[in-house]
Design brief:
One of its GO terms (molecular function) is metal ion binding. This is Peroxidase. With 618 residues, the chain is an alpha+beta fold. The protein contains 14 helices and 21 strands. Helix 2 crosses helix 3 and helix 6 crosses helix 11. The structure holds protoporphyrin IX containing FE (HEM).
Length: 618
């Protein structure tokens, strides 16, 4: 994160999903998978389902022409014979509301695989972002099926970019978690007669991400049905693992060797992308992060709201003597840029995350988070140019300043900003049925037990609805449209010729198509101007789950914008009274003198992370 500077809206959103495990409204992705969770409805391993989902999405890659890879196309390929399974359908539903303008569906799939591996004790897989979503299925899926002979398997992995040795290793890394289930492969795992509860046959004796898949195979105690099945055609793990006389398997029998091999190969797996996609540098944990910062209007007052998030070592509690202070400078007037004094205020609330509620990526790095929220009144004529924080541990040592590497966190414009508290969203039933693209809304006929995979596949190609055995097509029968009425504050002196919004929602039902709409706002006739601002309003209706907006005002040939604004918390925005403000003479941003201090404290905060990563590589 050395080159990281606030604000970086995409980095900020990705970092929050990866390490806090949740969206900006608190809706949690990681709590679906952690701690190494079994799905209540099926008794299967959620982490394993997420890992397999990433593998199969990646499996469309073709090294020969650089097409396919982890691009989210799997959501359109769930009818393909090689993508057979209930785990895929449940995973699609787990992920459905998390992609947004800043986080692609394919990045969510990669993050899901990383979380799944981490929460079951596996290695920490570095996450680089920037995967691009496709909006239609890939041409030919190359994912292996148990019936494939060894040459077919080798060629399929070669096309994905992996050697024979890597095929063996990657398959062992995948099959250390999860199971074969009777619902999907009755010819391998017979269902219990007269019961609808699926029989789930784990690949190895542990639910953890560990080397048991290898050691049990080598010592002959394995129960892995893809090895021990009496149906030799279906014994793909046996064919793969023994394809070089077990020498690769022997090479990863050691626990640490297994972990480090899987770390490298699984990172490579989630970085298999079409050749025109360039991934970012690794998204690392920001030790002291501005989680949000915006001017707003609440309870008829202009306010500035921000949250500082600090790392908190898992085995320590926050000192009761700690004080956290927000400081800021005026943007206009005689006290511009703290010419005389800075404004300062203390948090209106603070909270430390219970480690069990955040991402396993944070907990395996040895941290949880302390959050400090500030709401301060802003005199709109002097406004705010920049802000920063001081954290005093009350231990006699000098305070630590967090100031964005020296200059303070700058407010680049105060001419236009979104007003969540005056904006509304209503859910209205969408009467057009939700189906997979190209699928029929009629459920497929349930397959009878004992059907061979080949005939199941044949049936699948003629029965286009998603194959959840005994169930209907996926997705809610009557999805909700969200009807938004947005309010934006615009400085009256700007006198804009146009105020408009670009809205985007990629979390649409079954990802049929992205939603995007540009619309103009009108000056409100019901909300009177106040303190030099007019209120502009406009509406949009989206079928998706996460509308993000870029708001723009055009004035004197220039466009002023606020971008990547989430709309997840409207109506329910908690109303908090602003804090008291005091004036502090002689403060500017912490300034150059404090840079040394900042570096020192950042380094200390990073230490547990560095140690944890070092320990997991070994
Ligand atoms: C030789 C190639 C492979 C074949 C033929 C194969 C086949 C299978 C089959 C038949 C299942 C059972 C699915 C079900 O019952 O729903 C399965 C599960 C699984 N596979 Fe593979 N696989 C292969 C390689 C891989 C690789 C490379 C990975 C990832 C790195 C992987 C990850 C998984 C996971 C995590 C599960 C468990 C899913 C769950 O519990 O829901 N597989 N595989």
């Amino acid at each position: 994160a050395s080159s990281y500077k606030w604000p970086s809206p995409q980095y900020d959103a990705l970092e929050t999903l990866l390490y806090e495990g949740r969206r900006s409204d608190g809706s949690s992705l990681s709590s679906l998978v952690a701690p190494c969770r079994k799905r209540a409805s099926t008794g299967t391993s959620v982490p394993a389902e997420w890992l397999r989902f990433a593998f199969h999405d990646m499996a469309t890659h073709n090294v020969d022409d650089g097409t396919g890879g982890l691009d989210g196309s799997i959501v359109y390929e769930l009818n393909a014979p090689e993508n057979f399974g209930e785990g895929f359908i449940d995973t699609l539903s787990d992920f459905s509301t998390f992609p947004n303008k800043a986080i692609s569906r394919a990045d969510v799939i990669a993050i899901g695989a990383i979380m799944g591996v981490a929460t079951c004790g596996g290695p920490t897989i570095p996450f680089r972002a920037g995967r691009m979503d496709v909006w239609k299925g890939g041409s030919s899926d190359n994912a292996p099926i148990p019936e494939d002979d060894i040459n077919t398997l080798k060629d399929s992995f070669r096309k994905m970019g992996f050697t024979q040795e890597e095929m063996i290793q990657l398959t062992a890394c995948g099959h250390t978690m999860g199971a074969v289930r009777s619902t999907d492969f009755p010819q391998l795992v017979p269902p219990t007669q007269g019961s609808t509860t699926p029989v789930v046959k784990d690949f190895d004796g542990t639910t953890q991400f560990d080397n048991a898949i290898v050691t049990e195979y080598l010592d002959g105690s394995t129960q892995n049905v893809l090895v021990v099945t009496s149906n030799a055609t279906m014994a793909s793990d046996l064919r793969v693992f023994s394809s070089d006389g077990n020498s690769t398997m022997k090479g990863i029998a050691d626990a640490n060797k297994f972990k480090s091999t899987c770390q490298t190969l699984l990172q490579r797996m989630i970085e298999v992308v079409p050749k025109d996609v360039t991934l970012t540098d690794e998204i690392t944990l920001i030790p002291a992060k501005v989680n949000s910062a915006a001017l707003s209007y609440e309870n008829k007052k202009f306010v500035f709201k921000t949250e500082l998030r600090l790392n908190q070592a898992l085995n320590q509690t926050v000192s009761s003597k700690r004080t956290v202070t927000l400081l800021w400078c005026a943007a206009n007037g005689t006290n511009k840029d703290c010419a005389d004094s800075a404004f300062s205020a203390i948090p209106v609330s603070n909270m430390t995350d219970d480690a069990s509620t955040i991402s396993p990526l944070a907990t395996t790095a040895g941290v949880t988070f302390a959050h400090y929220q500030f709401v301060v009144p802003i005199d709109t004529s002097s406004s705010i140019s920049k802000f920063w924080f001081e954290v005093n541990e009350g231990d006699g040592k000098s305070a630590t300043t967090y100031n964005n590497g020296g200059d303070g966190y700058k407010i680049d414009q105060d001419s236009i900003f979104f007003v969540p508290m005056l904006s509304h969203v209503d859910s209205v039933a969408n009467t057009s049925p939700a189906t997979m693209p190209g699928s029929s809304p009629t459920p497929a006929a349930p397959l009878t037990s004992g059907t061979s995979a080949a005939s199941a596949a044949a049936q699948a190609t003629t029965a286009p609805a998603l194959r959840r055995r005994g169930g209907g097509p996926i997705g809610p029968a009557l999805p909700q449209n969200k009807v938004y009425n947005l309010v934006i504050a615009v400085k009256s002196s700007l006198a804009p010729s146009r105020v408009y919004v670009d809205s985007t929602d990629v979390a649409t039902p079954n990802f049929t198509q992205p939603f995007s709409q540009t619309f103009d706002l009108q000056k409100s006739s019901s909300l009177p101007a106040q303190d030099g601002y007019d209120f502009w309003t406009g509406g949009v209706t989206s079928p998706g789950a996460q509308l993000m907006v870029d708001i723009h005002a055009v004035a004197s040939g220039q466009t002023i914008s606020q971008t990547y604004v989430p709309t997840l918390l409207l109506d329910n925005t908690p109303q908090v009274d602003p804090s008291n403000v005091t004036m502090v003479k002689g403060k500017k941003t912490g300034g150059a003198l404090r840079v040394g201090e900042v570096i020192g404290s950042v380094w200390l905060a990073l230490l547990p992370v560095v140690m944890a990563i070092g320990a997991s590589v070994m």
